[in-house]
Write a structure and sequence with these properties.
Number of domains: 1
Distance between the termini: 91 Å
Helix content: over 70%
Largest sheet: none
Order of helices and strands: HHHH
Structural class: mainly alpha
Strand content: under 5%
Radius of gyration: 29 Å
Number of helices: 4
Length: about 180
């Protein structure tokens, strides 16, 4: 008889536990969303910082500093990749909470604008390494057909870059007016 009587109380206790669990999960959801919002705010500041770094890289112009420039452009490339990973993380969490996914057009634009500069300095460091090997390596071990092929490739890439950067500068100048 006692067992049957306790069964009558269980539905009420279950309702109370469900109610407590719902309140607790709502509180945790609010904390989680606040944390996500704070992360997004920090990320917005980080995007400004990345854009500033890119503006500095745009000013690089002296081949003598190619090693420094290559390190800095590589670092910015890594930071941009991490930023895209962070955006994916934001989007995954937003999907969990059925929120609209955040879009960061500035990040996409930054990557698009940065890519030619990154490729240029990667090519420049590659040429510098080849040049060091050709100048300082054993003369008899030089592969002249390969050297000629690489030099032709660097020349073509340089001509292509001159045209590209001239167009970019013209666009930038016309956008200011």
């Amino acid at each position: 008889m006692e067992v049957y009587w306790s069964l009558k109380n269980y539905p009420y206790e279950i309702k109370m536990k469900v109610s407590d669990g719902t309140k607790n999960s709502q509180q945790q959801e609010v904390k989680f969303q606040d944390g996500l919002d704070q992360e997004k705010e920090r990320f917005a500041k980080e995007l400004v910082f990345l854009n500033n770094q890119f503006m500095q890289i745009r000013k690089f112009s002296n081949y003598i500093n190619v090693k420094e420039y290559a390190i800095e452009t590589n670092h910015l490339k890594d930071q941009i990749e991490k930023a895209f990973d962070q955006v994916r993380s934001f989007n995954e969490r937003e999907v969990l909470f059925k929120q609209p996914q955040s879009e960061y057009h500035d990040l996409n634009e930054l990557q698009k604008d940065f890519e030619p500069f990154n490729k240029m300095w990667e090519s420049a460091i590659e040429f510098d390494m080849d040049k060091q090997e050709w100048y300082n390596g054993p003369f008899l071990k030089l592969n002249y057909p390969l050297m000629e092929k690489k030099i032709d490739g660097y020349l073509k890439y340089s001509v292509k870059n001159i045209k590209l950067f001239t167009e970019l500068e013209e666009e930038r100048t016309s956008n200011r007016n």
